[in-house]
């Protein structure tokens, strides 16, 4: 299994009150598997995704990414795990306005310590694969919503991660574009044998995933 989450709970202190967002949830995602997490707003989907991507530590429970436990890692080591092992696709694409499409990808390579012609080759291959070759010198402001999300997919694959985590990737897209973007994520997951989790409200794209898990009141229900 590429991602293993065992008995994960997450609670916050809100004044006098203890708020439990996740309650003893467990999930395993294998290589080449694309899982959708569905649930209403405030059900804990984003918290779940942040914990899966080592952005947030659970209150209790254990996470393993690629067989490596995260519990005892320092902040520096967790940053390295995120850079080497996890690819994030955010809701609004989260592109850097002053970088062109190609440089959005090369920045990830640089942060992960990959430089030179190998990184440029990788970026060129991904942009071609996702139909962005002609847009590589464009800046985010001149891209459509669908193109921005395709850049976000390419960027998430740049560090060759074990896991891809997508947070509401269709939120700002119409039905047709949304379906195409999730189809691309699904294709890349299969082709590159990645484990992927997508948090979504969008039931129209569920035909593209292998498993649907609902999150309600902090519990996972398959």
UniProtKB/TrEMBL annotation:
<keyword id="KW-0067">ATP-binding</keyword>
<keyword id="KW-0547">Nucleotide-binding</keyword>
<dbReference type="InterPro" id="IPR003593">
    <property type="entry name" value="AAA+_ATPase"/>
</dbReference>
<dbReference type="InterPro" id="IPR017911">
    <property type="entry name" value="MacB-like_ATP-bd"/>
</dbReference>
<dbReference type="InterPro" id="IPR003439">
    <property type="entry name" value="ABC_transporter-like_ATP-bd"/>
</dbReference>
<dbReference type="GO" id="GO:0098796">
    <property type="term" value="C:membrane protein complex"/>
</dbReference>
<comment type="similarity">
    <text>Belongs to the ABC transporter superfamily.</text>
</comment>
<dbReference type="InterPro" id="IPR027417">
    <property type="entry name" value="P-loop_NTPase"/>
</dbReference>
<feature type="domain" description="ABC transporter">
    <location>
        <begin position="3"/>
        <end position="222"/>
    </location>
</feature>
<dbReference type="GO" id="GO:0016887">
    <property type="term" value="F:ATP hydrolysis activity"/>
</dbReference>
<dbReference type="GO" id="GO:0022857">
    <property type="term" value="F:transmembrane transporter activity"/>
</dbReference>
<dbReference type="InterPro" id="IPR017871">
    <property type="entry name" value="ABC_transporter-like_CS"/>
</dbReference>
<protein>
    <submittedName>
        <fullName>Macrolide export ATP-binding/permease protein MacB 2</fullName>
    </submittedName>
</protein>
<dbReference type="GO" id="GO:0005524">
    <property type="term" value="F:ATP binding"/>
</dbReference>
<keyword id="KW-0813">Transport</keyword>
<dbReference type="Pfam" id="PF00005">
    <property type="entry name" value="ABC_tran"/>
</dbReference>
């Amino acid at each position: 299994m590429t991602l293993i989450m065992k008995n994960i709970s997450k609670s916050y202190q809100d004044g006098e009150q203890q708020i439990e967002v996740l309650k003893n949830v467990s999930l395993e995602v294998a290589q080449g598997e694309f899982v959708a997490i569905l649930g209403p707003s405030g059900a804990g989907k984003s918290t779940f995704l942040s914990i899966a991507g080592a952005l947030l530590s659970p209150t209790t429970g254990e996470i393993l990414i690629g067989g490596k436990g995260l519990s005892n890692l320092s902040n520096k080591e967790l940053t390295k795990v995120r850079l080497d092992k996890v690819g994030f696709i955010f809701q609004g694409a989260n592109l850097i306005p002053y970088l062109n499409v190609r440089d959005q990808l090369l920045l990830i390579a640089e942060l992960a310590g990959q430089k030179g012609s190998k990184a440029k080759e990788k970026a060129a291959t991904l942009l071609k694969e996702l139909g962005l070759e002609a847009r590589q010198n464009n800046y985010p402001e001149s891209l459509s919503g669908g193109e921005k999300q395709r850049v976000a997919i390419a960027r998430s694959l740049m560090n060759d991660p074990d896991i891809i985590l997508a947070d509401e990737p269709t939120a700002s897209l119409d039905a047709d574009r949304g379906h195409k973007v999730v189809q691309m994520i699904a294709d890349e997951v299969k082709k590159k044998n990645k484990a992927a989790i997508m948090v979504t409200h969008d039931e129209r794209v569920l035909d593209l995933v292998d498993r649907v898990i609902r999150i309600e009141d902090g519990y996972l229900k398959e």
